[in-house]
Amino acid sequence: xxxxxxxxxxxxxxxxxxxxxxxxxxxxxxxxxxxxxxxxxxxxxxxxxxxxxxxxxxxxxxxxxxxxxxxxxxxxxxxxxxxxxxxxxxxxx
Length: 93
Description:
The chain is an all-alpha fold. The protein has a domain of 57 residues. The chain is 52% helix and 0% strand. The chain contains four helices and no strands.
């Protein structure tokens, strides 16, 4: 398959087959997050290490541009820095 239009049509057929169609119904959301809802979030350094070790190494990059492989292959020193940065961010709220 070399023709761009043919490639495009192939992708279109595939994605159309795996995604569902929107039913147009908007759910009624009555409860909204409280303004300071993240003030009581608690996590430890060990929690972060456990979560990072559970990451699948072939996941795509996040919005920060870092892949799960980056986190998995980084040393524990990076996890400690990441933990301190998270604590700083959550303490701002």
